[in-house]
Predict the structure.
Amino acid sequence: MKLKHLQGLTPDGELYINDDMGTVEAMIPPGVYNTAHAPALLELENGDMLCAWFAGSFEGSKDISIVCARLNSGSTSWEEPIKVSNDSERSEQNPSLFIGPDKAIWLVYTAQMDRMEGKDNMQFTSIIRCQKSFDNGYTWSKAEALFSREGSFCRQPIQVLENGRWIFGNWVCTDSKLGLTGDPTVFQISDDEGKTWKTVEMPNSNGRVHANIVELENGHLIALMRSRFADNVYISESFDFGDTWSEPVPTVLPNNNSSISALKLESGRIAIAYNPTCTPVPTQGIAAWPGLRCPVAVALSEDGGKTWPMIRLMERGEGFIGDENTTNNKQYEYPYLMQGKDGDLHLAFAYKNRIGVKYMRFSEADVMGAKRETVGLYNPTSGETK
């Protein structure tokens, strides 16, 4: 297919070639909603791509619902989103997409009660729900509770390990004066394809959340996590398919108390998408919200997450640095990173203070700085994509 060259993203879903970055990108149509946040991606067997996110007036309000947009295989434009979840009394957030053994698409998300007087954050009332689609995301079943423990939150999809075990990273929000400071990470584990689950806790993980589970080799897992204290991305290890975990320790990557996305690539490298910023003076045990959610970077590790020598800014935003970041830059946040069947990387994140979702497609070599004329996604002369 032949794409236009980028002059400026428009909210019509059109795919463009960004000559400066060597990427293909689009702003997915936001529909009728005021905000868009926490996108998730899934490539279907027929080559279609789905993107789900939560949309409505404002995060935490009862009119927040899960919506889903489609990029048909071979198309040059994303379609308008459709509304999927419909609870008028709960704020439905943080969707993830997973293809189950029943060949259905599982849409898994959180559902928390609307704000109460005197309480702005109601995440401690959240449960985790699931809706399924058996027709590639055109229609969806009614919502059912997947995990009913109040305070349960999630972000990364269910992961299937080499031994067939399912593992699902969660964290538990509590109603405390310190807000979300004390949230611990827990894992939901199933050895019968989701029929039954057991819960495993990560030791001393309070404030380390949004666990992204990566299987380095058979049974050897790492979990990369967001830090409520806005200091670093943290890492924990398991050597028994997730039955036990080490106490999390900081990596060299900064974290700004915002979501991350990590996975193992076909090359064997670990990739992570994140905001490469942190609070200037983090305090352990105290949640910080520095608001520094620009730029968006993708980093690569060749040693299981110990070091990250290859880092590229995929979204540079307005380009300001330093103390004026929060006023001069907009927010580009909650990235979701996945690898397609053809090896391309696909990235989605909340765009320009949540006015929509930006989608990008590029290669692992693009992150490493290889010449796009030989390894990129398109021919810069003809404009043809591969």
